[in-house]
Amino acid sequence: IGQFCELNHGVAFPLMAKSDLNGDSTNKVYKWLKNQKAGILSLTRMKWNFEKFLIDREGKVVHRWASTLS
Question: What is the pLDDT of residue 41?
Fold first, then answer.
């Protein structure tokens, strides 16, 4: 992914590794976020990585916004 972005878009800053949002290999941060606040219809599954979470000063997930784009 990093090489693609560097070659095609001139990206010159470090990138994080690709993270899974769902399934057995779900990134630990996404797993925690989803367990703290269910999404639409009380589902924890994420449609894609543009979903947003609001975390308060005490570290509690107070809101989750699912992407409305497909």
Answer: 80
Q: What is the DSSP letter of 17?
A: P
Half-sphere exposure of 34 (CA within 13 A, CB side): 20
Q: Quickly list H helices, 1-70.
A: 2-9, 28-36
Residues with catalytic annotation?
A: 8
DSSP conformational letter for 57: T
Using alpha carbons, list the distances in angstroms from residue 23 to 15, 30, 42, 45. 23, 11, 17, 9
Q: Residues, the chain, total?
A: 70
The label of the residue with tokens 């990585």 reads: 49
Chain segment 54-65, per-residue pLDDT in tens: 999 999 999 999
pTM for the model: 0.69
